[in-house]
Description:
This protein is an alpha+beta fold. Helices cover 49% and strands 22% of the residues. Helix 6 packs antiparallel against helix 7.
Amino acid sequence: MPLPNLPEDVVRILSFHGPVEMVCEGELGLISEKVEVAPFDSHLVAFLRPGGALAEALLLTGRAEVQARHIEGTYSLRMTGVAHPGIAVGRRADRASLTPWLPERGGNGLLAAEFIPHRIELSRQEGANTVRYHGPTPAGQQAPSRLRGVVRAGFTQSGVVGTLVAFPAVFGFLAWEGPEVPWRPVALMVAWLGAALGAVGLRLVMLMLTYDVWRRIRGNSDECSLVTSGVVSYGDARFFGLWCLGLWGFVVLLCWGLWSQGLALTVFFGSLVPLYTAAGLVHLGAGKPDRAA
């Protein structure tokens, strides 16, 4: 992400404003809380209560809004962007830089939620004039859409490897079976698509699980950087990952019923889902996210 992402005026306002209003859409509607923030050139760090409604909502959606208004109407600031609940302040490597912004009591136990603004709306009074700035930030200009973020996250590491391995595996099996396979072109496309969905689904689920490990067991944050950087939210990784794995299982059964047990097993093993699942569980169980996944 290019620096700076926030204009100096915004950083200055947030440095003196005090608690801001942070809003996120939860399962039952909008969740809003007053939170202290630490402003930086690239992002904000909001301090949230562990287990609070706002932290839980951020975990699911990964999108939030920050509002700050001067009591006398001197300025009005609204920012939208991506965020995640993060880990306790006391566990962060940069906790020394966050300490000056913490509440006086229990600060180290609060969650440090990183908020990356994608769009800023600022209105400020300068004498008799009103200065307005509305527009995307550098991070907002480069940010993928929600769907593109899911696709980008799914087709990385094990997702792309499984997709690439599945095609020659399915093609080779059907070539070995010979022309007597009914609807062979259809079988090729259905089997390969199913295997690709399995590989992508597992990659998304592993991103979700490595984020959990990082938050709870001091795992490696590099393994879930696509979640912490806002490319894909934890909730989207879980939702789309489980759906893709479900469709992969359906295609395995479909191939078994319409074509053959051999094609079903090729889809099952050719996607590398069993291999990466076993490797991932071993590493997650040890508190170390699986780099291969």
